[in-house]
Design a protein that fits this description.
Length: 184
């Protein structure tokens, strides 16, 4: 059975460098037989978490807010792998990705003990510089807290303007990671 991958692309630029990494990863994963559902978060109307603990009453629509997350929840529940993609913004992930990820808590609320579904994950980031340490720390801690398995990170520095990623080795790394993750 094909592995299912959900990509949460937190970049606001549809054709930006983060999107380039995401596309290379998706191509590799699809070539190896995986099903990939990609969500460009900037295009979705996603509101911040209310912290209301009111979710979890309906597995099909776990959050009390009805917005763009309704498209993501089914793919997330079925996914074997969650790909987190973001440009580096002030030494962390973008607000788009943080907002959407916080809202995944509604799925955990479907369980009495607030257990998150166990997944594998990958991280993709692009930045003008190379200061990914804080983002890596956040991601590593997230993996530990959720009990998820990190399958890899592709961090592309030195890519500021749209298209700067072209020709960078990180594109091949992302494609290879897609193939590896698709195979299990």
């Amino acid at each position: 059975m094909a592995r299912k991958i959900v990509v949460l692309n937190g970049s606001p630029r549809a054709k930006g460098n983060t999107a380039g990494l995401v596309e290379a990863f998706a191509q590799g994963a699809r070539a190896a037989g995986a099903e990939v559902a990609r969500f460009d978060l900037q295009k979705l109307d996603i509101h911040p978490c209310l912290g209301c603990f009111g979710g979890g009453k309906d597995e099909e629509s776990p959050c009390v807010q009805k917005d763009g997350m309704g498209d993501i929840y089914p793919a997330y529940r079925e996914a074997d792998v969650v790909a987190l993609a973001s440009p580096l913004y002030y030494w962390s992930i973008s607000g788009q990705l943080k907002c959407a990820f916080d809202r995944l808590f509604a799925v955990a609320e479907c369980n009495e003990d607030y257990a998150n579904p166990v997944k594998e994950a990958v991280l993709f980031m692009a930045a003008e510089g190379d200061g990914f340490e804080e983002s890596e720390h956040w991601y590593d801690r997230l993996m530990g807290h959720l009990g998820w398995t990190d399958r890899g990170k592709v961090l592309a520095g030195g890519v500021m303007d749209v298209g700067d990623i072209a020709g960078h080795a990180e594109l091949a790394e992302a494609e290879a990671l897609g193939r590896a993750v698709a195979r299990g």
